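With this grant's support, we have settled on a layout for protein records. An illustrative entry appears below exactly as we store it:
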Amino acid sequence: MSTHMTREEFDRRMRVVEGEVEGEKLVTRFILEQTQRNGDDLGALKARIDHLSSDVALVRGAVTGHTALLNVLVQDVGQLRQEMGGVRRDMGELRQDMQQDMSQLRQDMQRDMGQLRLDMQRDMGQLRLDMQQDMNQLRLDMRRDMGQLRQDMQQDIGQLRQEMGTMRDDIAAIRTALAPRDLPGGA
């Protein structure tokens, strides 16, 4: 089927097609401009991504190193927990041993203190007896010595009295000898 068109219709259709072609050219130019801009942006992004990929590689290496350190720390913490469990057990046993020792020590001290009290009471009783005997002997010795001293003093005083009597007689004799004499014939 052939259709016939008129020149005017053909021109009109041509203008429409030319308008569509011009529109497509504008769209293509716009797309090309956007592609160039996007290419520049993509180049900048690619440079950034390359830089980020090296940073990610460094971070991945650091994370790997930290992971190894973390694994070591986890093992150390596990060992510390085990050791702390052992220390707790040892401390519990030590507490029990100390409590038993302290209880035994208290009993021993009470027994020893009781024996010490008995010994001190016995010794103090003996000391009292010894002191009483010594004091009685001292009193006897003092009485004997005081009696002897009294006798010695009485003898010494008696002797002094005798000597004083003799001195009195001697002084009287000296006075008489020195006294002026009455001369016979009266002077």
